[in-house]
Amino acid sequence: MDLVSINPATLEELGRVPVADAAEVERKIAALRGRLPAPPIEARVALVRRAAERMRADAAGLAELMTREQGKPI
């Protein structure tokens, strides 16, 4: 099953994202647990900072997508 993002103003399909129920997520977590050690906090902080940088770099594109999902102008 997919979550479908639709512009309510035009009914244009903007994209799809696969959806998993809680049981499926738990099964996947259990299957992965113990396979790889958790990265150190410094590495996790660096990942979050990189994600924030990418979001800031594409703020205009993200704003456009968010407004299309809401069916509103920027």
SSE arrangement:
Layout (H helix, E strand, L loop, with lengths): L1 E5 L6 E6 L3 H11 L8 H17 L1 H12 L4
Antiparallel strand pairs: 1-2
Describe the structure.
Helices cover 54% and strands 15% of the residues. By secondary structure, the chain is an alpha+beta fold. The chain has a two-stranded antiparallel ribbon with strand order 1-2. A hairpin with a 6-residue loop joins strand 1 (2-6) and strand 2. It has 3 helices and 2 strands. The model has no long low-confidence stretch (mean pLDDT 92).
Provide the descriptors you would attach to this structure in a database record.
alpha+beta; 74 residues; two-stranded antiparallel ribbon; 15% strand; single chain
Shape: flat
Order of helices and strands: EEHHH
Structural class: alpha+beta
Poorly predicted regions:
none
- Count of individual beta strands: 2
Helix content: 40-55%
The share of residues in extended strands comes to 5-15%
The rounded Rg comes to 17 Å
Briefly, what is this?
The chain has 74 residues and is an alpha+beta fold. The protein has three helices and two strands, in the order E-E-H-H-H. The protein is flat.
